[in-house]
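Re: your question about TonB-dependent receptor plug domain-containing protein

S., sorry for the slow reply, the queue was backed up all week. Below is exactly what I fed in.
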Amino acid sequence: MTKNLILGLLAFFLLSFSLQTRFRELVFEKLDNYTNQFPEKIYVQTDKPYYALGDDIWFTAYLVNGVTHTRSSKSRVIYVELINEQDSIVSKRRLYTNDVSVAGDFKIDKELKAGNYLLRAYTSYMRNNGSADFFLKELPIWNINKEQQATASLSTPVESNKPNAGLKTKPELSFYPEGGNLIEELFSKMAVKVKDPKGRNIAITGEIKDSNHNTVASFTTHDYGLGLITYTPAPNISYYASIYIDNQEVKYPLPQALPRGYQLSVSNFGHQIVIKVSSSSNMSLKNTFLVGHQRGELIYEKLETQDSKMYTVKLSTELLSDGVTNFTLFDSNSKPICERLVFIDNPNNDIAVNLKLSKANPKTRDKVKLAINLKNKDSLPIFGNLSMSITDIDAIGQSTKNGNIKTYLLLNSDLRGTIENPGYFFEKANDPRRRYTLDLVMLSHGWRRFKWTDLLYSNNAYKDTFSPEKGIFISGRTKELRGKKQQISAATRLTFMTKPPYQDKQQADSTGLFKYGPFVFSDSVPTLIEARVKDFKSDEDRKNRFVSIILEDALNSSPRVSRNDLFKPFLKDTSRITNFMHQARKMAALDSIFLREATRLDEVVITARRQDEKEKRNLELNERTNYGYPSNRIDMAEMENLRNLSILDLLNMLPGVTAYNDSISIRRQGSPKIVVDGIPAEMADILYMTGNDVDFIDVLKGADAVTFSNAGNGVIAVYTRTGNFSQNIHIKRKPGIIDFTAKGFYSAREFYAPDHINGFDEATRQDIRTTLHWEPKIVLNTNRPQGNISFFTSDLKSNYAIRIEGLSENGQPFSHLSYLKVH
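Result:
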């Protein structure tokens, strides 16, 4: 070998090593950026898994840093929405928290339609990634007045220990090779998932056969329709899965093995994980790079410098956090070629929830005191935030298979696709069967938070279209009142009509945008926003006020509804749902009797056809007129988002009406007659009005206008919101000012907790609540290491479930389910 060739090879190897070193630094940098920027997660605990029309939904929303699961330092504002089956938002809450959790509630309108509703929670910042990161929970809401099958819309997995039992139709089989690909002549593991035509998990047995119909392996699926296939693909041979339905063979082709490539295999033994990296005989692992991370935090890395075919790593889980761990192998060209997910469940991180009841066997209408504390594995106190519901088991099914804050934050929120009944994996500690099944889940799902190609090579990995909200913002744009009505940079002033008033000034930018805030308030506050073309010192110039102000209502701007990756309840016991419906009907009847007796009103029976809401509204408006129905009408109650428009802009929306430069015409005829609140008026009287001043506008043309004299060119009839135009006819409303009510944050109602000792009404009122108690926020800290709660039992002798969920100060989620019997 010549000297030049040796030097050339040396230079090539040094260059390759240098490139991989730089790539290694790039990976560290990008992961560090990801954890510093960090996504946010939200989890919502509700008091019950299902409800009836007219019921109350009590909930606690937890907002956390998506990497550490500690309190998020970004957003302070949470949006929680109740959405019907038609994807319409029927109720929305804007909540403020300066902690990790905040309480909220919904009152379910009795007039709503029953169905599977969606509870959705998110922050504005989470919208940067679309709806993929939103919390989505299905809430069945039933009509108690209908004798219907309550579980008709619910489906639960079919899990049978008898493979192929009753199988009549061809199921769907999906295959997931470990690491991503099968490689010829390398021993391979592959998960298989089986669903029936209705999408339910089923158990089957089958065989793996080669193209010569030789059986090379067999497999069986059990829980979650999952099974494991192991075999070594031979060169130039194809393989298929074979199952029998009614003695007929059904074939499913397997993924084709690659002739060359890399393999990443992981074995999870609980206390440690063993990672095996190998390559086919015609390749080398030199300059490959293995990276392991938990939610973006680096836990392991290895740059292979040797010309090897295989290496093994043993990694202890003793110091690792719980949750999904991602291992990715990059080839010598810095491309991600293998990925494997592993779930870490470290017993050292377990939190014990300890409850102490003042009465072990309480009776009906008994007062019970409950003490709660948290301990770690060494029995030392743990601090954090938690919430608690106590519900009647005979009516409210509380399965340990249901998802909770632990399963959501550690499992569902980091995996693509839906994980059904995730609580199953945590029902029993250190259970080999559950660990085995969970590992199959890891094999059959991908990491959802980011793609390596996007993270490493995109300059726009973090889009800040939506900024974290720290409070309420009041924003809008300023435009020319006349002419081309272009956006202008006007001087603006905000005034909260409080005691004392609060005022602030701001110059709108070149696009007319102004934005005040963040503010934190709960009440509705009367608010003024003023604008001037120049400044607030030049009001002697009439044209200085020729500014139109258009508000932007962020609260009503909700993202598109998506129902992917729903958090569904595990509902299998129909008898309990039937009990719930019966109990809800009885409660409704008792409430009705109580209210009737409380008000002591004589019974009045009214029989009438239920009028359409719009028809009702038109009849109400017609009562303010003396001409009946108009030719055309604008009802501002239907156009809340346009209240900031000038009256000329509103009139231009009416058919046949042209409003421009202080003049109005109907069908291009002369000036129409102008009437305000029934009083003849002039153009100058309405010129500076906006939609905020108007209730509705009618246009009368031709024969419709004969009620008025001198109305040959038609009539423009304006009706103000106050109806007092006649008292203010000489007061000209100036432009450049709008008034409205700024809506504050929602404050949760207090859970109704009857006092059966000191309460007056409770003495004669039957108590059959399905939610015995709801405690939305219990904070444990050094000053209060133990939570003390008290509640009354009801009139029902039943078993009750105590469900507690929460987060420790260091971000460890926990869930607890225990039981209370009332005699």
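Residues 9-14, 148-160, 598-610, 726-732 have pLDDT under 50 and may be disordered. The radius of gyration is 34 Å.

Happy to talk it through on Thursday.
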